[in-house]
Amino acid sequence: MVQNSLSILKQYWGYDGFRPLQEEIISSVLNGRDTLALMPTGGGKSICFQIPALMQEGICVVISPLIALMKDQVEQLRGRGIEAIAIYSGMGYREIDIALDNCIFGKIKFLYLAPERLYSDLVRERLRYMKVNLWAIDEAHCISQWGYDFRPSYLQIAQLRELHPKVPFLAVTATATPNVVVDIQEQLGFVSPHVLSRSFARVNLGYMALEEENKMNRMLRIVKKVGGTGVVYVRNRRETQEVARFLLNHGVPADYYHAGLGMKERSAKQDAWSSNKMRVIVATNAFGMGIDKSDVRFVIHLDIPDSLEAYYQEAGRAGRDEKKAFPVLLYQQADRDRLWTNLESSFPEVSFIQQVYHYLANYYQIAYGSGQGLFFDFDIVEFSKKYTLDLLQTLSALKFLERDGWLALSEAVYIPSRLKFEIDFQELYKFQVQSAKYDPIIKAVLRTYGGVFDFYVPINEYEFAKKLKLPYEVIVELLQGLEKQQIASYLKSTDKPQLQFLQSRVDYKNLYIDTDFLRERRQIKERQVKAVYAYLDEGMCRSQALLSYFGELESAVCGVCDLCLSRNFKEEQELKIEQEVRVLLLEKALALHELIDAIPVSDENKRIQVLRRLVDLEKVELRDSLYYWIAH
């Protein structure tokens, strides 16, 4: 019997009902309609493609640029008894081959793909033979050059329609301006425009943007006043440690987090914060994607984000439990200046981009006419230091090289070691008898992991070292020995980004770079930076300003942001001054200095300002140097 969406929601997630818009999106997809779903951060986007996929025969293919988030969702699905698998950069050809076979012939319900995998002929060909029931595109704004996080590899997604023309696309995102909404649908080739959207409003969030000379002390006051757990975002790795140390020195349990830490250390820090053993995590923007912690009471930015999209997404990690929370942006003039400087660095000269390509090919010793399809671990800091290159300009150059189809770059993510036996059980048993040296490690693998003859399984060398009472280095040596003798395939762990050359090396002077695209991207980026300045300067309710940026022009003032609170305070002060004037002048007429001195509220300038307004409104009259109350 086919289950309905509500029973699946209850069975696998334990919820009795859907959140707003989820049911409409699921129904749209089940009716075979291409759908763009706009939902705020924490709105439950993944359920919108997971449930319809479970209701139909076949497999759902999910495209996501965030490998850490993909891995997290795969683990969650498996924890609920749902078969899921992820393919991303850093996996070997044979490993991918086996995983794709399992999607065709096995019981896999969800295949998560990093977008750069769509460059692979192997992946595209195998997708043709899968019984796909839905294409789901997460972080769909990445396909639009109007978006804040454009990913060139996303442009490959539209080609999926050729493989299974009748299978609908579900594109989901939490950050899309009106231009991006149109562009997403065009880039994905929607049969007809179809957008389902929830308001981007987060009524429980009190947005603050405060110009502050002493940001550290202001941050400390906010952390102590608000209470609970929170995130402090800073610009670079060095600052994560400095700010965490400052908080610790002032009695606040805090730790730091950035992409340069080892996987074990990152996991330990994240777990301590997620379980409320640590109050504050100080991090670069590498932290937060895929972390489903609902009780975050504050998100403080000590630097200005590059765009309102990025700010909305990072600030939106606060208050997912729908209780009051505070995203606070603290800034100085130097931060504003740096935002424009970073914009300039984000658009290097074509000659610089060509030079970076040349250095990359030399770095990996790739000969002219070769290198197509090769993958490498890539440390951008190490690379930039070796060739004395500006880090931000180098990163920008890599993005433009990716846009023009020369290479693909994935973000840093921990990929555990994997192992697969390449001979059958009988042959392995013979090898064990003949090679006593390898017998203990083979027995340990067989006792610990199932399916190791059929596909690659993630392994932990440290656990084997502990069980067998051997040094870690000896365990690695034994596993490498099994590979040398073709008994097993052993793929060692990595936590570095992966760089792939998509074409054979050419002379960098003949390297084509799309200068029109460079110019258009710069114009878009300038508009985004100017929108950030407007958010800081224009005095519009913070929530209203964000909603207006995302195309919601009819929203009400929030009443809880810094500007609304300031406005409310001023209005209360003015009302109190007016009441004082009324009481004093009903008793008797007074001269200006007598009246102003007798009012106990606010400062002298404010009192005079209110008095002038009352005269203009004809509530007060000036006759013979005395003020009279004349209002009825």
Report on the structure:
- One of its GO terms (biological process) is DNA repair.
- It is an enzyme of class 5 (isomerase).
- The protein has 632 residues and is an alpha/beta fold.
- The protein has five domains: 5-197, P-loop containing nucleotide triphosphate hydrolases (Rossmann fold); 208-331 and 525-549, P-loop containing nucleotide triphosphate hydrolases (Rossmann fold, 3-Layer(aba) Sandwich), CATH 3.40.50.300; 341-413 and 496-513, Orthogonal Bundle (Arc Repressor Mutant, subunit A), CATH 1.10.10; 417-491; 562-629, Arc Repressor Mutant, subunit A (Orthogonal Bundle), CATH 1.10.10.10.
- It is 45% helix and 14% strand.
- It is built from 25 helices and 21 strands.
- The strands form five sheets. It has a seven-stranded parallel beta sheet, with helices on both faces.
- β10, α11 and β11 form a beta-alpha-beta unit.
- α2 (22-30) packs parallel to α3 (45-54) and α23 (562-587) packs across α25.
- The radius of gyration is 30 Å and the shape is elongated.
- The termini are far apart.
- The total strand number stands at 21
Give the low-pLDDT segments: none
CATH architecture of the largest domain: 3-Layer(aba) Sandwich
DSSP helical segment count = 25
Oligomer type: single chain
CATH homologous superfamily title of the largest domain: P-loop containing nucleotide triphosphate hydrolases
Enumerate the strands of the largest sheet in spatial order, edge to edge or round the barrel. 3-4-2-5-6-1-7
Rounded mean pLDDT is: 91
User: What share of the residues does DSSP label as strand, in percent?
Assistant: 5-15%
Distance between the termini: 76 Å
Question: Which CATH C-level class of the largest domain is it?
Answer: Alpha Beta
User: In one word, what is the shape?
Assistant: elongated
Radius of gyration: 30 Å
What's the number of domains? 5
Helix content: 40-55%
Structural class: alpha/beta
Tell me about the biggest sheet? 7 strands, parallel
